[in-house]
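Two folds, back to back.
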Amino acid sequence: MAITVAQLALQLDGRIVGDADGLINSVATLDHALPGQLTFLANTKYQHQLAETTAGAVLVRESEAAGCPVTAIIVNDPYLSYAKAVASLYPEHREPGGIHPQATVDESASIDPSAWIGANVVVEAGATIGQGVQISPGCVIGRNVDIGVDTRLHANVSLYAEVKIGERCLLHSGVVIGSDGFGFANENGHWLKIQQIGRVIVGNDVEIGANCAIDSGAIGDTIIEDGVKLDNLIQIAHNVRIGAHTAIAGHSAVAGSSVIGKHCAIGGAVGIVGHLDICDNVTITAMSLVSKSISEPGVYSSGLPVEGNREWNKRVARLGQLGKLNNRVSQLEKLKR
């Protein structure tokens, strides 16, 4: 798809310095962009690449426009504007409404005529599929599942019974929603399974990355609020609640009944233990272990960053000596008194 610089600037509420009639048909990085391609400068680390770019147009801030040798579109936030531009230049492919002949659909399911049901999809009794929904091959839609308007499921997504998915959601391949929570009671050394009778409720505009697992509630529901973004390979346990517009990076895990507030940012491979409360506007850096509730907004970290093995061994050895050091200091303080 091609669009003029003028049309693009209008969509982005930007101001043009240069050729407004130039055509843009694709995007590229600042150092590789060619005529006809759009690029952007969001990080001053790449400022030196701006002077040599041959792009058709560059999204820049006002302060960087003078150094741009090609057409500039001046915007407040180049990265955000780039995200909007990509959506215009690369519109999502959508299948026309219909049911593939190799799909299996229970006669009691309700499917909007504009929805697409791909090959080898199974839709069980009582399911409701909304307007414009796209369900790719191999998905399983369980009993009484409800999928909202314009939501898309990529191949091989499994939604267990009673799951509710909101509008305009995007679920990537391998996602499993509504599987049993990890609930067992110990009876004389043997584990007795606890029936998980809650649901999973997913709000609007939620994106769930490939191979995420979100467990059903043990009694109440597991809830993912509007605008939440989950990266690939994330585990969300039973009865967790994730607040609106929180983003969680890959390989993180949230144990049962923890509550994460709104507008939080959680880095990769973070572990959050069960029954905690994390307030709104918290950032947790990668590889952190959250073992207690967080009641104040801010940035939180734990763990040691990588370093040479010899230095790391020395540091860990010193940590092991802290108890002895503390005892010696205490003894010296007593003598001083």
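---
second:
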Amino acid sequence: MNPKFVLPNFIILIVLFSCIVAICSAEILFTDSEGNQLTFPGPAEKLVCLNSDSAEMVVALGAGEKIIGLADSVMSDTALMAHIPNAVSVGNWQTPNFEKVLELKPDAVISYSSSKPKNSDQFLNAGINLTYLDCYRINTLDHDVKALGTLLGASDRADVYVKFKDKWQNLVSSRVANLAPDQIPSVYIEGYSDYSANGKGSGVDQELDVARGKNIAASLGEQWPKVTAEWVLSQNPDVIIKAVSLKPDKTLEQVRDGILHRSGFETLSAVKNNQVYALNGDLAYGPRSPAGLIYVAKALHPSLFKDIYPDDVLKEYADTFVSGVEKGEYYYPVL
């Protein structure tokens, strides 16, 4: 064999092998919110986001232009939509328009794991595996944003968000660490519907764990147990926090006033001591929740957080991740 041909052929084999390795290494792997290990051939370029929190997190990672489909509820968020120029509506987040999603040919369809689409079987039967990334509970935000960063090829940006979130969470944890048991207030957390409590493991419950509050619904065995006025009265919480899905016809002050004037509630310690708070769900859950955590901490332990304001956290978030969201009605009363 002529040695002149052996070396070039050997070099060609090395180049081919390197190309194969590079192609294989382009595959990305991550675990979703359900613990499923997912594999994609490369970073996703086209996304459909059925949950608003994942859509906002995609924007926070600097990839809003990759979102091509959104649920109706997200399309109405003007501050967020300013960063999502290419998206069209795919209908209701619980029953998305399957044909429309199929027509868009997304690389990934992202949904809540806790509230899956009712027609998810349609997607599975068509070979479309839903990617479950909640992006709303403060205890799992680190995992979810890192998984999303991997999916988008934006891991560095995900790390920046994790540092932002951890900074504020660690600050709260350090300030409440030495509280005595009798300094921990009991709290009734109410969800969007009247007498729909936030139980153990729910979004605001996790913020209570960090800020040292005792959730009176934690022992009811459900994340969102339905309770009654009589039950709340029997528990007599020190603090009431109402999570609100803000509607244009009602302000947070009006929502709070509605709680204050519920029959029998004038006997509650929370009402007597003016410890009733209304918190916009956009701050209670999701990427903006570090600001919500500061509000909850100030509500529970005002003397420990006199020098910190949720507006400052929200401004930092807007300046660093999603501009425009610092404007809006987020809580009442202002702390």
